[in-house]
Amino acid sequence: MISKLIFKDHKYNLLTILIICFFAIALIIFLGSRTNEEVQNIVQEQFNEQQLLLARQSTDGIEEFLNQKTIIIEILANEISDKPPDEIVDSFINVYNKTNDIHVIEFINESGIVTLGYPEENSPLGYDLYEKNDEWVFEKTRDNKETYISNPIFLLEGGMGVFIWTPIYEGDEFKGIVLVIIKISDISDRFLKNCKSQHEVYMIDKRGTILYDSSNRYRWGRNYLEKLGNESPRLQQILHQQMNGSEGTGYYLDMNGSEKRLIAYSPIYWRNQLWSVAVTSQVSEVDTLIKSIYVKHSMFIGVSGIFLLLGSFSIILLLTRWNKSLELEVASKTSEITESNELLKRANKKLMELDKLKSDFVSMVSHELKTPLTPMKTSAEFLLQNDPDVNVRREMLELIVRNIDRQTRMVNDMLDISRIESGNMRFRKDMLDIGEIINSAIETIKKQSEEKKINITTDIPTDLLKINADKDKLIQVFINLLSNALKFTPNGGNVEIKANESEKYIEVYVKDDGIGISPDKIDKIFNKFYQIDNTSTRSYGGSGLGLVITKSIMKGHGGTIRVESTLGEGSVFILTFLK
Amino acid sequence: MNFDDIEKEIIKIIEKDPEMPPERIAVLLQINVEKVKQTIDTISDTREKIMIVDDELDSLLPLKRALEAENYQVIEASSGMEAIEKTRSDHPDIILLDLMMPGMDGFEVCNVLKADSLTQHIPIIMLTAKGEIDDKIEGIETGADDYVTKPFDLGELKARIKMILRRTGV
Q: What domains does chain A contain, in order, with CATH numbers?
């Protein structure tokens, strides 16, 4: 199945892998961007939530702190209702020391005069509220019989403070008021200054009065709304919501309009007071955070993409190498097949050549065997059918005998070839004089040489070493060579036989000045079934087996035969005998 | 002067003077006496003339003797070129042509003779040791009148010769 999907051309495979790789990267980028949007929203929400929690944490702390102080003061007021002044001061000292962040505790008697206070340096002892026309809060607290907290105001000793007025009753008898002042700066120092540096915090009361501003942009005690004037309407809306006791988050542009800020605000409900704490931060911080996430995300995408690319390229590399190794293997196998095909073709061609040679040989042998039969048969039939005179009869009989000899030689050649092929050629070796052998052969072909007027000369050293050889076979060798020389040398030509002796060899040269052998045929003359001219126009008869038989006889004597020839100039057959 | 011209001149002289001796004719024509005698013999020989073409003299000789015994005049040629020359000069009535010969083989000789208007009418019997059908077809296609495989039966060959001569009206 997979193999069907794989292109045969590996370039398409590489392209497919690259396309898949780029699709994968595009998908990662798409999913990454979608994820980034979601992450951005989530981070935004989380950041808002976190900022709101921060504001809420501050307000909860302040609220708890102030309510706790109020309850303590109310308990104190209840405890000192029947105590003499010295014990009241002791109680004040006790409360002051055990609770932090109380600026001063004062006792105002039923006439509105500060009579006791701790610490004394912060206490305006003898201060008469009626005399200073500050009695309305005193009277309101007395009449309502419950704690009243006045709006934060500037203190004589500096800073802003909030006044907690708690009435003291012994039964229904009004004894006075415990006044506790808490400095706003103490509250802000405890709960608001520890905010992170990238945040800005401010606190206002229900009138919009700035109680604290970490940016120090506005002085405390000023009205925030008044300070804003017509600037930053969105912030004005938010301030109104704060003054109404709402909780929430929002955005606004700062007064310059250049920076968008996130604001989270939470109210502080403290008896009759309503304050609000707001925590602001630059939206760019969120963007920075998101960008940081983007960067990390992008890095993740990038790394994923790089891994994908690397993976893809690794696969491509592997596939390429695989393909190359496959191609090499295929090329190698193809080369082997081509080579074996070539070998087979050559073998087949050689077999066909051999087959043709064999056919030609059979045809030639058939012709050569038939050729002497024709005169024999014709002569015999002529003698049978006629009664010629003695001379003609003798002529016919001689012709018959001559052709019988010819056919016998042919048959003997065939038998020799058969013996050579079957390895049954036997040699009866004696120590022989080469000169005598050569002379015997020359004597045998003497009549032929005389007919063609070919001069045969010999140059055989008389002291030539004798060789161990089969006499008849060796004579046959020289007869074959001399017959060939006579056959291929024109009338009146020359044939020369000479011998020499070296340290290891005896060499005999049979040289003629006949037609010679062409270079392309010289290597084939010792091949079986090969005759240079096997066409119907061939000038020279014979089975073509003479040289094959000669070579085999030489081989049987441990010798060799070779030929050197120039076309048109003649040939030299060189016989080498081992000493 | 070629053979045909010599033959014509001798015929003209003999027509004028039937008793003129060969020596006198030779003087008149300025040629060899033997040539004159040979030409007169040829002109006066009315026997059917057979030319045997074979490079194997041993094959040619018994056939020549056998055909001479049948009272044929026999001309010999031992090569293709010689066969063509003698055909043109001696005008044989039939040619027994061996196929395998040095130089020009029997097929080529047959082609040459059949292409020549002077010799194309002369029947040719191919004689060869090659007995394959293809060889026979090639021989017949080149214009040979018959194809006899060696070694042949002498009586059969003589019968074929007679038949062809009778057919050609010699």
A: 1-346 (3.30.450.20), 427-578 (3.30.565.10)
In this structure, which amino acid lies at residue A235? L
Q: Is A514 at the interface with chain B, CB within 8 A?
A: no
Question: What value does the CA radius of gyration of chain B take, rounded to a whole number of Å?
Answer: 17
Domain boundaries of chain B, sorted by first residue: 3-44, 49-168
Q: Tell me which chain A residue has its CA closest to the CA of residue B66.
A: A382
The torsion angle over the Cα atoms of residues A324, A329, A335 and A338, rounded to 10 degrees, is -120
Check if the beta carbon of residue A117 is closer than 8 Å to that of residue A107: yes
A156-A161-A163 Cα angle (round to 5):
100
Tallying the residues shown for chain B, one arrives at 170
Quick check: helix, strand or coil at residue B141? helix
Q: In CATH, what number does B3-44 get?
A: 1.10.10
Rounded Cα distance, A439 and A434, in Å: 9
Structure tokens at A344: 């087979």
Over its C-alpha atoms, chain A yields an Rg (Å, rounded) of 69
Tokens (6 digits) for A390: 């003695």
Angle between helices B57-69 and A283-385 (to 10 degrees): 40
ipTM exceeds 0.95, yes or no: no
Domains B3-44 and B49-168 share a fold: no
Indicate the class that CATH gives domain B49-168. alpha beta
Angle among Cα A524, A540, B156 to the nearest 5 degrees reads 125
Q: Which residues of B touch A (CB under 8 A)?
A: 56, 58-59, 61-63, 65-66, 69, 99-108, 129-130, 132, 150-155
Q: Counting one residue from A and one from B, how many pairs have CB atoms under 8 Å apart? A: 86
Give percent of chain A above pLDDT 70. Answer: 94
Q: Burial level of A495, CB count in 10 A (0-12/13-18/19+)?
A: buried
Across A10-14, A24-28, A78-82, A280-284, least confident range: A10-14
φ and ψ at residue A527, rounded to 5 degrees: -80, 145
Distance from CA of B96 to the nearest CA of A (A): 14
Beta strands in A17-90 (DSSP E): none
For the whole prediction, is pTM greater than 0.80?
no
As a 3-state breakdown, chain A gives helix, strand, coil percent values, each rounded to 5, of 55, 20, 25
Sign of CA dihedral A515, A519, A523, A529: negative
Of B58, B69, B151, the CB nearest to A386: B69
Average pLDDT for chain A: 86
> Which band of pLDDT confidence, cut at 50, 70 and 90, is reported for residue A528?
low
